[in-house]
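Oxysterol-binding protein 4 structure dump, as promised
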Amino acid sequence: MAGGEQEGVAVPSQNKGSWSSFLKSIASFNGDLSSMTAPAFILSTTSLTEFSAYWSEMPGLLVAPANEPDPQKRAMLVLKWFLSTLKQQYASRNEKLGSEKKPLNPFLGELFLGKWEDAEGETQLVSEQVSHHPPVTAYSIWNNKRGVRLQGYNAQKATFSRTIHVKQVGHALLHLDKYNEDYLITLPPLHIESLITGSPYVELNKSTYIVGSNGYTSRIDYSGKGWVSGTKNALSAIMYPHGQEKDKSAVIYTAEGTWTDTFTIKDAKKNTVVTYNAKREPKTPLTVAPIEQQDPLETRRAWKRVADAIMKGDMSATGSEKTVIEERQRALRKQEAAEKKEWERRFFSKVDRLPVCEKLFKDVPGGSMEADQTGGIWVFDQEKARNAKPPFSALSEQLKNGWK
Ligand SMILES: CC(C)CCC[C@@H](C)[C@H]1CC[C@H]2[C@@H]3CC=C4C[C@@H](O)CC[C@]4(C)[C@H]3CC[C@]12C
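structure tokens r here:
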């Protein structure tokens, strides 16, 4: 930054110049995160289509509610699982890479598929970039053995005021077959901390609602260093019957702690029912097909040359390899316009209405299906997945009997 602002130790001295010009450039950026050009050391080799996997790196926690007969406890286990995903979603890059990084901006039709195999059986992930302008990523994660299905989509709207502020548009919807139950999960806004010192990380703002069709809602409030709690990545949550958000005596469970370290869930009598340690919880690795067996639209295959160039720190190769992808995309769009056709999404379809969600949004203050979309409501299309061609034919076997 211009003038006497202190630069921290995080930016290596040879990068200080590029970092301060980057900061100057984003101060006037237009809200489209993908248009931002960042210095090499802050570029990630991972595309946003891969981020969908963060919902299920601990499949045991995702499927746990499916084995719980008590509806209140079930809703509490959904809350526990959701809280457990936050660290992967929002802090895993700084932990692995030393700071938040700028992800690769997915192209239309980009895919990311994989599965987790563990004691819970097979949990399958399908993620697809369903829109490029505005960028929207849709995903579907399911475990047939336990009858658990999660699907959703997300997009980001960014603004700049002192730092980068990001509003998330979209939702996640969890379905439990056995109880024919749905949970609508809203996505919290976030901002970037420590941008000036070059060690950016994510802090969450405001709240998340998890509205269950069984009549229970959880609200999670987030706060960070600058807040009363004074703690990084802090959370405070309550679970209550629909419509009773303001009634303290109606609270069934509470959760307190941080999403990067530990939190506890207590019942109405203040007895601890869960202590969760985010640092100790074992993760199941996601299995992804080797690059040579992947479809050309699969993210790691499609971005390989760009990723290699970034890893070498070769900015000019990074730029020219990105141009190859962009030009291919431009040519496809031109061809589609000439043929008056639209790009066919492989696994998702747009719908006009999503009644399950509309209903559950009633218990989200200010929430609505209209505010939840950008470029359409996207749902997993079982029919498309069942008819999937190689290398994805195995999906048809999984979906043979359809979803309940
Ligand atoms: C790090 C600085 C320099 C660049 C800013 C990069 C921006 C584009 C990055 C930083 C943090 C990122 C977010 C981190 C986590 C998630 C949750 C995931 O489920 C959807 C994408 C989303 C919402 C990311 C969108 C892109 C994001 C906002």
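Residues 71-97 form the longest helix (27 residues).
lmk if u need the other ones
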